[in-house]
Design brief:
The chain starts with a helix and ends with a helix. The chain is globular, with a radius of gyration of 25 Å. It is mostly helical. It has 2 domains: 4-81, Glucose permease domain IIB (Gyrase A, domain 2, 2-Layer Sandwich), CATH 3.30.1360; 106-461, no CATH class. It contains 16 helices and 6 strands. It has a 4-stranded antiparallel β-sheet with strand order 1-2-4-3. Strands 5-6 form a two-stranded antiparallel ribbon.
């Protein structure tokens, strides 16, 4: 029995059983379960589950907020439910019509829900790689470690493994998300990285020249290739006899996809990738002063709506190709600090309820360390006025970040007070760490003070209304 086994058993019951589930995955903090019918789900019971910090219903996807241990919850849910892709057991329920309006938010949610299972599983490798490089550079710059030592080379190898093989990682997760054999996507990524293809000049296939392209740490080329593979796979499934499909389909798929990938899709994806990267850097340089406070202020609400994952491809692309992110990289850092400071301000305003005061304080500390869902859904969302303090702190912190040119060198995770290594640059300099500390101080202090002012004004207003009512009654 795992820690989340009982929670998983009850969640399965409240979700309407295995027959009401289409897909199960998770992101950094949420268990994401696609369902057929939302009308048979007991949302109130789900929200009261032990180990659950909140529940969000987003266009037939139920998001159960767990926190950093979400991977354990996912494994326990899979074990308890016996769910598997394409082979659910249990009685199927009739699918209901989706009457959700197809507006901008709808499509952003759809995109975010599709993107999350592709990129989020890769993020831990990038975090480890980036932080290991930061530690290596700090050891060499400030502790005298020899750049040619075995320790330095091992640390560098871990960093390279986290980034160089991104085509393999993304190929695997994208193929899985498209409900193909994941190993086929990984194989395509591996082909791109082989020493006989990766960055090799003068290649050709059947007399057709293959452009020289380096695929280390790239994302878009393999994404284009796997999508093309998806359609090739669908066609081959229809025309290959079932008794031959296990052997023949993979062979024909690779035989068709690889040449097209190397001659057309790979070079085009690389060109597109460079264009996007250059545009993002230009945007950060040209509009950083303006864009940072706006992005920082909007980000908490993107998290609330569950569409923050829609921007993860941009962040991952910039870190992997350019080496840093000056556009979207600081949004999560500032947002998490402001949400934490807001929760702490609410906690200090609570009177005559030590349990609630302590709970809100723990939510605030957790958010300052990078995990905001408990604070957001357990404390702030029921007090919408305090989000004014969150917004003011985020705008102030974003303004300072834009003026001082804050950059992050590690993608993903739950940025907060415990992740200042994210700001150590490639040379091991602490320049951006000091800027991050200034941004953190401004974000936290402005948020806390503004939230306390908002709460004080609200309390006085309620007291005034109460006194007026008593006077009228008398």
């Amino acid at each position: 029995m795992g820690k989340y086994s009982e929670m998983s058993r009850l969640a399965l019951e409240y979700l309407g059983g295995i027959g009401n589930i289409n897909h199960v995955t998770h992101c950094a903090t949420r268990l994401r379960i696609d369902v057929v019918r939302t009308s048979i789900i007991n949302m109130e019971a789900l929200k009261k589950l032990s180990g659950c910090a909140g529940v969000i219903n987003k266009q037939h996807q139920i998001q159960i907020i767990i926190g950093p241990n979400v991977n354990d919850a996912y494994n326990d849910f899979i074990d308890v439910s016996k769910w598997k892709e394409g082979g659910n057991v249990g009685e199927k329920v009739e699918e209901e019509d989706n009457d959700t309006p197809h507006n901008t938010t709808y499509y952003l949610n759809k995109f975010g829900n599709f993107v999350a299972p592709i990129f989020m599983p890769v993020v831990p490798a990038m975090i480890v790689g980036g932080m290991i490089l930061a530690i290596r550079n700090l050891l060499m710059n400030y502790f005298g470690m020899d750049i040619n030592s075995g320790t330095a080379n091992v640390l560098l190898s871990i960093f390279q493994a986290g980034f160089t093989f991104l085509p393999i990682y993304i190929g695997y997760t994208l193929a899985s998300q498209l409900k193909m054999q994941p190993i086929m996507g990984a194989l395509l990524g591996a082909v791109l990285l082989t020493e006989r293809i990766n960055g090799v000049p003068g290649l050709s296939f059947l007399g057709i020249d293959i452009p020289q392209v380096s695929y280390d740490s790239t994302i878009l080329p393999v994404i284009l290739g796997v999508f093309f593979m998806f359609y090739v796979d669908k066609i081959l499934k229809k025309i290959i006899p079932e008794y031959l499909i296990y052997f023949v389909k993979p062979l024909l798929t690779i035989a068709i996809v690889v040449p097209v990938q190397l001659i057309i899709l790979g070079p085009f994806g690389t060109l597109l990738s460079d264009t996007i990267g250059n545009f993002c850097i230009w945007l950060g340089d040209a509009l950083g002063f303006i864009s940072q406070p706006i992005l920082a202020a909007v980000y908490p609400y993107m998290v609330m709506l569950g569409i923050d994952k829609a921007i993860s491809p941009i962040s991952i692309h910039l870190i992997a190709t350019v080496g840093y992110n000056s556009v979207t990289g600081t949004m999560g850092f500032i947002s998490n600090l402001c949400i934490g400071a807001t929760a702490l301000a609410v906690a200090t305003s609570v009177r005559n309820d030590k349990a609630k005061k302590g709970l809100f304080a723990s939510f605030g500390v957790t958010a300052l360390c990078g995990v905001t869902e408990p604070a957001f859904y357990g404390c702030l969302i029921s007090r919408p006025k305090v989000l004014i303090g969150t917004a003011m702190g985020a705008i102030s912190g974003g303004l300072v970040a834009g003026i001082l040119g804050l950059r992050t060198y590690v993608e993903g995770g739950c940025p907060g007070l415990l992740t200042f290594l994210f700001f150590v640059d490639k040379s091991g300099s602490l320049h951006y760490v000091f800027i991050a500390a200034i941004v953190a101080a401004v974000s936290i202090s402005v948020t806390f003070v503004t939230t306390r002012i908002v709460l004080t004004v609200e309390t006085k207003s309620k007291l005034k209304d109460k006194n007026s009512s008593m006077i009228k009654a008398s």
